[in-house]
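Subject: Response regulator transcription factor

B.,
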Amino acid sequence: MAELAVTRVLLVDGSQLITEGLRISLHRTHCFRVVGIAHTVGDAARCLRSTPVDLVVTDVDVPGAGPLRTVRDTVQYQSKARVVVLSNADCPHWARAALDAGAVAYLLKTSPVQEMLPLISGAVRGAPATIDSRLGSLSLLPSRLPPPAALGQLSAREFDVLAEMAKGMDNQRIAHRLFISNDTVKTHVKAILRKLGARDRAHAVAMVLGTSYDPAATPPRTVVRPPSSTSA
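Prediction pasted inline below.
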């Protein structure tokens, strides 16, 4: 009897505790083999360029770049690989953004392992896109917002900066998260505003999120909805 093919997995998460727990749980099924573990977006990209994988399990927000970057990198470097996003963000908008970026499943880290593994297996077998049942039905999620045409003009790094702006991050925090200088962040922000034709940061975020813009209002420090995905 021929042996069933073992699914090659790349685990991407900033927490070593999370990746080790997933590695052990997946190996116990004898259906998965973890061939790579990455704790930053850069490490994940290097693995995707060098190691064939069938499945990527990644957090929404991995250190080193903006949200969902590893999802987009997987689509770019290994388009046949399936991507499952495993997140603490119990927000339907993040789920929609993940699926729009190319993921086939959006699961919460609080899900019991015995419930999570069948969903991951289904994703590998080509099951329809799915999200954690606690977030409701896909039919209840808002449709993908059409981004401004100018959004496609942004560079990969400018898109990363815009994603952090949408989360309410100031320049100093963006610089820390993306490992770049404050001056570089300022340069990217100016380019983003120019390319989008936005009057200020809040206007740029409102354009991408499809929300209303009040120039007299103080922008919130935290924005729960990410921008719609676009190719890097």
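The chain is about 40% helix and 10% strand.

T.
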